[in-house]
From TrEMBL:
Region (Disordered): 1-22
Location(s) in or outside the cell: Cell membrane
InterPro entries, per the entry: MFS (IPR011701), MFS_dom (IPR020846), MFS_trans_sf (IPR036259), NO3_transporter (IPR044772)
Protein name in the entry: NarK/NasA family nitrate transporter
Keywords: Membrane, Nitrate assimilation, Transmembrane, Transmembrane helix
Domain Major facilitator superfamily (MFS) profile: 27-438
Amino acid sequence: MALLDAPAPPTESDEGRPDPAPPGANRVLALSTFAFTLLFAAWLMFGVLGVPIRDELGLSDVQLSWLSAVAILNGSIWRLPAGIAADRWGGRVVFTFFLLTTAVFSYLVAQVHSYGTLLVLAFLVGLAGNAFTAGVAWNSAWFPRERQGFALGLFGAGNVGASVTKFLGPAVIGATAGGTYLGFVDGGWRLVPVIYAVLLAVTAVALWLLVPRHDRSPGRGRSIREQLVPLREVRVWRFSSYYVAVFGAYVALAAWLPKYYVDTFGVSLTTGALLTATFIFPASLLRPVGGALSDRIGARRVMYWTFGVMLAATALLMMPNGHIVVEVSGNNGTADVLPFAMSLELFVVTVFVLGCAMGIGKAAVYKHIPEYFPRDVGAVGGLVGMLGGLGGFLLPPLFAYATSWTGLPSATFFVLFVLTAVCFAWMHRTVLALLQHESPELSDHFEHPHLPGRRLGRRAHFDPAGAAGTTMEANR
């Protein structure tokens, strides 16, 4: 494996006027974003439906937690095949498949009366989460390099679907409980998955008819083995670790925060869900901003800011309420020093800032992929998305264990602090290794780094914190 590797070679248009997006690209982006928003809402709907389901079926909290867990798991494990499929056959086919199958499984959720059947259907509904990597591959194929960051960020803003059920679900449940609609659909929580089923089916038809019939499929004609070759590169796994921190942690907190608010601050579940939305919205809607910034100033520089803000926010959030007790010599007394208490207001604002950083960072991670793997966005983006989604599945148990071991609810954010610190350290170590290789004559010039730089010619302008498309990157 080579130590250094250049990003994708520039096209002729990179040296002149940027290529415009081809006809139909904006329709692909608009319809795929709307479809992904619906799919994401269906994927995470058990976070809100769980409470009335628990009350009706008499479930324990452990049984209830598995409904969301299995949906998140199945929404992660097929992301690599979904990305490859979109590269080979086009996103039009793959997205229509996800919309129709999720519509069927969502409708069946409304008909169940046993926990076992519900658990199976929750797992099957989770298939919706895999549409993300299909959409990334699809939109990457339709947009030129200089617009891919914004396009992928806008598509990824469909994560806001996580808030759709939190806002609409309680209102629908409360307004329709006890009623029957169309002669066979019960009201209450059972009406919500039926509404999703109808919307998903209608969207599938609209997408199939309105997006270009002649789809773009850069992986067509290539063998699966050839498409998987880039996954051998360490760089791909490094990008995956970044995505665990910015997306896996986002999914985990979206499910964990309502309970955290209730248990730690004593608010109602409805209030906890609304406060959680103040985290979900910026973590979703700022993805286009993150993509545009990555297009403009470089994805790696954006990642430096992302991890820096996340480290500062989680460092504050992981501080436990309390004070240090100091033995005072001479009078056998004690003194309380350094008192600290996290108010609800401070917590909400800090979590909001954390959500902003995650939203921008999610787009920056995916900006790297088409830069370095323009023909393999499906496979590489699929692996990155799969591992990020699995992080969302594994982090809540880590939160629970950390809280149990320490007795501190704030240990949740200690877990995130450590995860972010590891990713930041790996990224920075890679940048330093790249700088050392590109300009070894600078390695001992700590006091006057600019003096020998004048002899470097082109290398003197190397920016290790800049775009993913800099001259060269260490493949480590």
